[in-house]
Amino acid sequence: MRATIRILGIDPGLRRTGWGVIDVDGNRLGFVACGAVASDDRAPLGERLVAIHAGLTRVVETYEPAEAAVEATFVNKDAAATLKLGQARGVALLVPALAGLAVAEYAPSLIKKTVVGTGQGDKAQIRMMVQVLLPKAAPDTHDAADALAIAVCHAHHRTSAVLRATLAKVAGA
After folding, report:
1. Domains within the chain, CATH numbers bracketed
2. Where would a tag sit more exposed on the chain, N or C end, judged by fewer CB atoms within 10 A?
């Protein structure tokens, strides 16, 4: 007997953090919800991080996912922007972890390859493929579409991610 697994995908960003929730039953994917948590780009950094934390906490409480996945940070040429993104990503990892969820991380290229078929897919291709894979999904933003893509990627790779996490816990015990 299979159990449906609810997965939360998070696309961290300081301006907008995308989130997407899907249900997985065997190899069947079902859309649940998606959106984005916005922060005021004129507010101090601490307040922006609090807004992201509060928004993601509401998502976790509302949809009660069993697992979560977050996109790994890519390093760009602007070190300050990369550092700020890393802080938003820290909040994106913290919220589901505080709720007791296992949190997997995936490189942007793996997410694109899983959803689009190539590691070089652009935002429009990701959004289109998310709507093909999840016909009831109509993400309003690229951030929400990216978050759904992260959840789909986790659905396809979750067995190995859960196994790695379990082995890490056993090794640390």
Report:
1. 5-172 (3.30.420.10)
2. N
| C-alpha angle 157-141-5 in degrees, rounded to nearest 5 | 30
Query: Which of 11, 23, 67, 146 is labelled catalytic?
Result: 11
Active site residue 11: yes
Give pLDDT tens digits for 96-152.
999 999 999 999 999 999 999 877 778 889 999 999 999 999 999 999 999 999 999
140: annotated binding-site residue? no
Question: Is 143 in the active site?
Answer: yes
40 is in an annotated binding site: no
Active site residue 78: no
Task: Report if pTM > 0.85.
Answer: yes
Question: Which residues are CB-neighbours of 91 under 8 A, at least 6 positions away?
Answer: 12, 17, 49, 52, 53, 56
Q: What pLDDT score does 117 carry?
A: 85
